[in-house]
Fold each of these.
Amino acid sequence: MNGQRDLMGLVSAVVVATALFGCSRSPTTVDEVIERHTKAMGGRAAIEAIQSIEFNLHITDPKFEVDGTYFAARPGKMRIDVNAEGNHVFTEAFDGQKGWQWEGKGTARKLATEKATAALRHGVELPGKLFGLHELKRRGHRIELDRRQRIDGINYYVLRLTLNDGYLTTLYVDPKNWLITRRRDVRPLHVDVDPTPTTIEQRNSDFRTIAGVQFAFASSETDLQSGKVLETAVIRGVKINPPLVSSIFEKL
């Protein structure tokens, strides 16, 4: 009996050690990194339960400050209304097929340019709003694991994300918390204002749990070539699954 108990104890110790090793070892595949990140974000079920979202934002550029309300809904629509000094001054939206803008006067909308439409679509597809990183492959996008990169003392896991229209961006997963705290790509900040592309780094911070999912409540956009901060945004409120009618993405 003692021998049997010893054998069972040994087997249990091996099982526990194997499980601990599996949890503690460094990921070696893109799927392992995605899975660690997804768990840190709150898990697949919590992320996929978000069908619509509303962010109340305060946006600061070097020349102005505005407030914004950003709406997004599956399967991939968005709208942002911008207010300055209490007045509604701008709206842009993507209805799932095309983008449009309203520039603060009258009721007439104009179609966004092809590049502006693409930028709006990219914004809603990228993880951190509606969709989880784990959902992107089945949405037709490609994710590859690149060589790790050390930035400011953190040895990031680097994911190359290619959206299904060819747009390329790089996501940096912090191994301390498995969250995406940096993103880099070559693009204009606001393509219809200045179409000149530059290498922009977005930094995400102040993560908070809302409805079981982690959201970055602060972000900044920096021109890596000059070191200039191009824009910062702070989330002042989040609503999960607000009842949005589809027409808000189609008309003013």
Amino acid sequence: MPQDRQSSFEPQLLPKRRKDISAIDDKIISMYARGMTVRQISETIEDI
């Protein structure tokens, strides 16, 4: 996590001090189940 002297940094993908990314895994699996290609899923995750 980047250093933040004023404590104003808030990560977009995972909230501070959270390490459980199982929700992201579930979303990736659901996108794949809907027929998205691996490339489309990768681009979506990069946009997030």
Amino acid sequence: MNPATILKLALEDGVTLDLSAAGTIKVTGDRSAVNRWLPLVREHKPGIMAVLQEAANDLLPDSAMEARRQRVLTVLAEQPGIPYVVVVDNPDTDPVIMVLGIRGQATCELRVPREKFDPFLLLDLIGRHCGTIH
């Protein structure tokens, strides 16, 4: 079993593996499930750490990401009457990269596989649930 498969199957079993601040693997979940996964995690520790580190690096902001975020913030600043804005970077890429900005709340970047990207459904969902507290 490879490290990516271990991470996926463990998550499906309710066990989460993350990098800790100390640079080790933090394993959380139901005690019995964690105990089932620990031997395999220890056996594949270097590979799992590499996959987790690569995923963490993918989450680091880059200049293009910050530029997209600034575009969203600019639209929100220029149009004070709108509660949210969605900017699609390039709908022809795979994945499609979108930035969502919700006034006074947050911004986030979404990466959606092109074959599942439906901008009208996205806008409908945001419109229906904007302001809903979950």
